[in-house]
Write a structure and sequence with these properties.
Number of strands: 8
Distance between the termini: 32 Å
Bound molecules: 5'-deoxyadenosine, iron/sulfur cluster
Largest sheet: 8 strands, parallel
Shape: globular
CATH topology: TIM Barrel
Radius of gyration: 20 Å
Number of helices: 15
Strand content: 5-15%
CATH architecture: Alpha-Beta Barrel
Structural class: alpha/beta
Oligomer: single chain
Length: 358
């Protein structure tokens, strides 16, 4: 064996064993894991991620109820159906009372967390959002996750003081070139500063990536995983890109389900105790992908509980609105069956990130 190959473990298991001993994987090793192509090695990768998941976050699958309260967006991301230039989209905003009614349904179903999600909609200014957060917190007692895009530091601080606990802000890609190409007028550096600010304010912070955006390669995806680990992100959303007909990316191919699952699996192995959802985008491309993701490192499901009359218009990518059941009884029956089949249980409580075992 040459000295080079000693530093380049050839088997997946050897690489994962090193990680288990607390050694950090090099970028080269992450690339090699993402490049695995044989079905047998892919299965071993998923199985290793599943072991790390079980050891670090257990068998509970936590539910987060998403309410998409506005589909207005001031941004013009080339990939997203909510982009401001999509004039074909019917825009809506839910009233505070409608949002509260949805929050109540979520609580009633025994789900501990609400995700308030919208495009970047300045109509919900600091005061309006703080009022909403405080009402949900005081009247309904849910853990609140915000997913409302980039805001200024004072907004983040005010939301936190009003009672928000978590904030999702995907960096989408760690390549500055790609980021600035697919999100015109936005800067990666600014995005990363927002993530730092959110950490400083003691939020549990979520970020994540889209797999399959044009120009992205394995090297970029490895950097994405390293960035998620190094910035101490608590929640990782990893989903495939799906082309939307009313966007400049309409003619591109979908991201690969398999590559998305590999990124998820490696991210679990590297970040250990994070919360990782089986994303709706994965399930939109393959109805079995939710179970597959849960067996390759995921431990969270985020059912979309936006009232259907609005949710139909939260048209980020095609097929999304139809992929979720909004009726709670049916939803729970399906979830319980799916989870039972793979030896998992629905978690109770808020499902905060556990402290890292390392
Ligand atoms: N395909 C997959 N995911 C998308 N998102 C936006 N557009 C698409 C698309 N076409 C995801 C992004 C973003 C969130 C609003 O939805 O990751 O963060
Ligand atoms: Fe707006 Fe987010 Fe879609 Fe970009 S990805 S257009 S910021 S909703």
């Amino acid at each position: 064996m040459t000295s080079t190959s000693e530093h380049r473990p050839s088997s997946v298991i050897e690489t994962i064993d090193r990680e288990e001993r607390g050694e950090r994987l090099s970028k080269e090793e992450i690339v090699r894991l993402l490049e695995i192509s044989s079905p047998a090695e892919t299965e071993r990768l998923y199985a290793a991620a599943d072991v790390v998941r079980k050891r670090c976050v257990g068998d509970d699958v936590f539910l987060r109820g998403i309410v998409e309260f506005s589909n207005h967006c001031r941004q013009n991301c080339l990939y997203c159906g909510l982009r401001r230039d999509n004039t074909a989209l019917v825009r809506y905003r839910m009233s505070d009372d409608e949002i509260l009614a949805s929050a109540y349904e979520i609580r009633k179903a025994g789900i501990g967390t609400i995700v308030l999600q919208s495009g970047e909609d300045p109509y919900y200014d600091r005061a309006r959002l703080c009022g909403l957060i405080a009402r949900i917190r005081e009247k309904i007692g849910l853990v609140i996750t915000l997913s409302v895009g980039e805001r200024n530091y004072e907004d983040y601080r005010a939301f936190r003081e009003a009672g928000a606990d978590r904030y999702l802000l995907k960096h989408e890609t760690s390549s500055q070139l790609l980021y600035e190409r697919i999100r015109p007028g936005c800067r990666l550096e600014e995005r990363l500063l927002c993530l730092t600010a959110l950490r400083e304010l003691n939020y549990e912070v979520g970020s994540g990536v889209m797999v399959g955006i044009p120009g992205q390669d394995i090297d970029v995806l490895a950097d994405d995983i390293i960035l998620l680990e190094e910035t101490g992100i608590d929640m990782l959303g990893i989903g495939p890109f799906i082309p939307h007909p009313q966007t400049p990316f309409r003619d591109l191919a979908c991201g690969s389900v398999e590559l998305t699952l590999k990124v998820l699996a490696v991210a679990r192995i590297v970040t250990r105790s994070t919360n990782i959802p089986a994303t709706t985008a994965l399930r939109t491309l393959d109805k079995d992908a939710r179970t597959m993701a849960l067996q390759a490192g995921a431990n969270v499901i985020m059912p979309d509980l936006t009232p259907l009359e609005y949710g139909l218009f939260y048209d980020i990518y095609p097929g999304r609105a139809k992929s979720e059941v909004t009726d709670m009884v049916t939803l729970f029956t399906i979830l319980r069956n799916d989870l039972q089949g793979i030896g998992r249980t629905i978690g109770s409580g808020a499902g905060h990130r556990r402290s890292s075992p390392h």
